[in-house]
């Protein structure tokens, strides 16, 4: 995809969703971090169901620690890998209090030092909570980048680097949201909804309808 086409690609996604936002419910950077951690191998809808009651009683590291691991498990038991995730939530809450005065850090290295926090989770938090131009490549973004020809890559890391290289600066702040929402709601894995797609003519997918 040529630079002018890439610019137009983002312009059209922006026109479709002028104010994109995460579909995860959260109150602050801490609850965002917890929600993103929980979303691994789970749907946003399922995470939101579980965190509604959890965040009502624990929306800070101190409150989460006071709640305790067993109570956290009960709140998130409908989510995959809930035992490991509950353990990580308690551990990262303790570290946030110990190292960062209870605040979520805004540096990737610090975020990735927390239990259960990998590069993708860190990228989401940096982008949404702190407005940094990061792109967290999940299965949806990986598919869109490769299928359309926007930024092909064999691995999520390669796609991330390609996207950061080709995405114009003016679109970087919301590129993550536009791509993930496009992949989740239109450019689906099995049956992409090509009819009416705003970037149909720019897309390089050989099987587009």
Identify the notable features of this structure and list them briefly.
209 residues, Endonuclease Iii, domain 2, Endonuclease III, domain 1, 2 domains, 61% helix
CATH class of the largest domain: Mainly Alpha
| CATH H-tier superfamily of the largest domain | Hypothetical protein, domain 2
Shape: elongated
CATH architecture descriptor name of the largest domain: Orthogonal Bundle
Task: Give the count of structural domains.
Answer: 2
Describe the structure.
This protein has helices spanning about 5-15, 30-40, 45-55, 60-65, 70-75, 80-100, 110, 120-130, 140-150, 155-165, 170-185. With about 210 residues, the protein is mainly α. The chain has two domains: about 5-20 and about 135-185, Endonuclease Iii, domain 2, CATH 1.10.1670; about 30-130, Endonuclease III, domain 1, CATH 1.10.340. Helix 4 packs across helix 6 (about 80-100), helix 5 (about 70-75) crosses helix 6 and helix 9 (about 140-150) packs across helix 11. The longest helix has 19 residues, at about 80-100. The mean pLDDT is about 95.
Topology:
Elements: H1 3-16, H2 29-38, H3 44-57, H4 61-67, H5 69-76, H6 82-100, H7 108-112, H8 119-130, H9 139-148, H10 156-166, H11 169-185
